[in-house]
Amino acid sequence: MKATGIGDRLRLASPRVLAAGNRWGPFPAVEAMILGRPDPASSDDARLARIDGRLAAAWARPAPLRVVADTAGHAVVVRLAQALLGLLSPATIRGAVDGGRPPAVLMLECLEPRATLDALHLAVAIAGAPADGEAGLGPMVARFQRAYARALPGTDEWALARAVAARGIAWRRVEQGPELSHLVVGEGRHRRRLLGTVSDRTSHFAATVAERKDQCTRLLARHLFPVPRQRLVRDAEAAVAAAAAIGFPVVVKPIDRSGGVGVAVGLAGPAEVADAFAAARRHARGVVVESMLLGGDHRLLVIGGRLVAASRRTPAQVVGDGRRTVAELVAATNADPRRSEPGGLLQPIVLDGEAARLLAARGLTAASVPAAGEAVPLRSAGNRSQGGTVEDVTARVHPDNAALACQATRLLGLDVAGVDLIVPDIARSCLGTGGGICEINRYPSLLTHLAAPGAPDVVAAYLDHALEGGGRRRIPIAVVVGGDAADAVADAVGGTLEAQGLGVGVAAGGLVAAGLPLADPGRGDPGRVARLIDDPMVGALVVAVDARDLLVRGLGHRRCDFAVAVADEAPEGAAAPALRRMARLGAATAAFAGPDARRDAAAWLAARIAAAAGPLAPAGAVGDRGG
Predict the structure, then answer these.
(1) Cα–Cα separations (whole angstroms), residue 611 to 417, 475, 490, 606, 620
(2) pLDDT tens for residues 170-213?
């Protein structure tokens, strides 16, 4: 790869990504050469402090630079890259520099190789920037931040990833597109796919009904659950007519958006309804007008048919002090580290059109100075994503309210749901107090409860449900090191285990998943292992690989159970280092050579894999390949 020049003093050459299970360790890594030397002043503590301050300002949160190496004057590059990556990944990021003189070989290890590579380029740019160019660091970091906004720790995805990793379960992040990704947790037939709180166990039918607010409310009303009166409208005139028929005040919302997007509450007149319709229509083709339930806004999280947590949500507001303007109070509120954007547990308050409307209703503007103690609402919906705050009320929920949320969720057929309950007092039954179910969210964010001090461990509760109690969720993984002999052994082991009823993934002379031949990217390609690990029909994995490919490119997965080197004559010199590397990934190892090496190695592996695989799933339990 052509070197990337960064000024005249420092440049990055030949960066490459290593697959998991490489010579540095179990996780994916990036190797690169740094040509040239940074300015000696770039390692000066005062300059690093200034850079650290610029990173912290760009990310709206602390970005500490950590010393990890001091070889050949390139430690600053590692420190800067780690500071950037530490804001993206929950993993421990390890950095090292080999070589006492240029060119230095630098390695960074984390769970996002692409982000690691981009962070390394940015770190070299920062380290090589002249002192008078430090002012331009903020925009550079901001671009990096925007590129990886979905990889920030303050998302459901990373909250789940951290908890899964703490349980010792392997996981991968799979990108579905520029703004969508999901987690694959576990291996082979034990794997689960998690898209936040939606999993491959979630009913598509139930999720479809819950997503449409009109359909969901109609279904609940048919079964006599307390819900608002509601009408689906297609234009502003119909919205005003519906509001008049229902009776003011009313709520206007898009039919299929979550997070409080486009929702307007407490509309008291036709003009407000018309404006709210126009705002909601920008987010969805359909809009509903419904009666306004009176009371506090509560999110009840139901998992597996039981209430796990409940939070009271308060719409975004500021409280006057008699000195500062509304805009200044908002800025002070947004300075709370929990509201750091992006990735914070709470979201910043935005002074937009809705805020202006609510201010105008009180005779205020953003430049007004509210009286001391005066609460000034800036949002009508209490969603955390709209700048609201949350308070845990799990211990106060009345049994009727808990039963209502659980039964409504079961009626829809959702295994996980966020039930939005509007009641004057969560400790009193909503039956008879005028409260009811505002809507049911098919994709409830765990962050709503993580942001509430003292809330139950909703992440653990969700993982216990999604992973059916947890467990190791592993399949046996075996590596056979060698040439043609390794292919023969892997195929023999696969055939033996398939005959016993175990679906086996075999990566040898070809690529086969539980008897299905696949397009093969080529022997030694780590992508072969990743493909078979994710197959729900695979109960064990056997990989044949050349020792040198394993040493240079990595295995493609971060652990291994068994590894053998097999050769018809004397094993090649790279076989022993390859086995040692697999041992560092947890493998029991053995070497076989001579006329009976293939037979003995196959028998050794087949017996151990069969014992490790445990009881097989009942026929049909795994589901078809489309599941």
Answers:
(1) 39, 11, 17, 9, 22
(2) 888 777 665 667 889 999 999 999 988 999 989 999 999 988 88
